[in-house]
Specification:
This protein is mostly beta strands. 7% of the residues lie in helices and 44% in strands. The strands form 2 sheets. Strands 1-2-3-9-4-7 form a 6-stranded antiparallel β-sheet, with no helix packed on it. InterPro entries: RmlC-like_jellyroll, RmlC_Cupin_sf. It comes from Natronosporangium hydrolyticum.
């Protein structure tokens, strides 16, 4: 039986800086990456992560919990949805997003983040 694994975001396995306005701390638990995204006011995927990803929209599937702040998600089909503190969210590939307001958005992401914002 494998041992219990415990990791802390204040000692991440990796930190991935965005092109300004934030970063993602990543821990690997049971061979699965979990990210804590710190999205500062003014952050937008198409401005701060698109240059790293090299795709027209985010192609990562996110499964997360919003700890603080607010983010608006714009799907490629034109629909929009707001993610706010205390909500659980599943975001499929094919989206842009931006922080709404003057508070940082902090999102724990248990989705397919192995290569998210990885240089």
């Amino acid at each position: 039986m494998p041992p219990v694994e415990i990791k802390r975001f204040d000692q991440p396995d990796e930190t991935r800086p965005f092109e300004g306005n934030g970063w993602a701390d990543v821990v690997n638990v049971a061979d699965h990456p979990v990210a804590a995204g710190h999205f500062e006011p003014g952050w937008r995927w198409s401005k701060n992560v698109k240059p790293i990803a090299g795709t027209d929209s985010c192609q990562v599937s996110h499964l997360g919990y919003c700890l603080a702040g607010q983010m608006r998600v714009y799907m490629d089909d034109g629909s929009e949805q707001d993610v706010t503190a205390g909500t659980v969210v599943a975001i499929p590939p094919g989206h842009d997003a931006e922080v709404i307001g003057d508070e940082a958005c902090i999102l724990l992401d248990f989705g397919e983040v192995a290569d998210y914002a990885r240089r």
